[in-house]
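Lab intake sheet, docking and co-folding queue.

SAMPLE TYPE: protein with bound small molecule
LIGAND NAME: zinc ion
LIGAND FORMAT: SMILES
REQUESTED OUTPUT: full 3D complex as structure tokens
PRIORITY: normal
SUBMITTED BY: R.K., bench team

The fields below were copied directly from the construct record.
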Amino acid sequence: MICPYCEYKESKVLDSRHIDSSSIRRRRECERCKKRFTTYEKIELIPVMVIKKDGRRESFDRDKIKYGLIRSCEKLPVSVAKIDELVDSIEAEINKMFVNEIETTKIGEMVMDRLKDVDEVAYVRFASVYRQFKDLNTFVNELESILKEKKDEK
Ligand SMILES: [Zn+2]
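RESULT FIELD (auto-filled):
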């Protein structure tokens, strides 16, 4: 990182702070003139395409996941911070897979896996929209399997 004052090439990092999951702010000090400056680093992520059920592709959009979660958590004791945390962890998991395409169904499973532990009502709401239960029986079966899982954990 070249010093903006004297153009010297070496600088010392005094402090690094994450701004969000993909950018870092660094406070630096030039090793020659000792002046301080700030740099921002952006992690370059591979653009991920989402494959929809009908085969169409669209670019990955974390706001869509967030919106789906907000709708499922409406009037429930789930904070926006918690929702953001879930979206971050899903995005991080996708980035770690190093893929450039992912099925919406896989993203849906990731959401449900996490939502299950956060709020059961939100989980059921999300699952019912997401899986588009065709009849009441599938819905009830799903519910029973959640409740059973919960019991087994105890
Ligand atoms: Zn300098």
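REVIEWER NOTE: Residues 3, 5-6, 8, 30, 32-33, 35 surround zinc ion (CB under 6 Å).
SIGN-OFF: pending second check by T.M.
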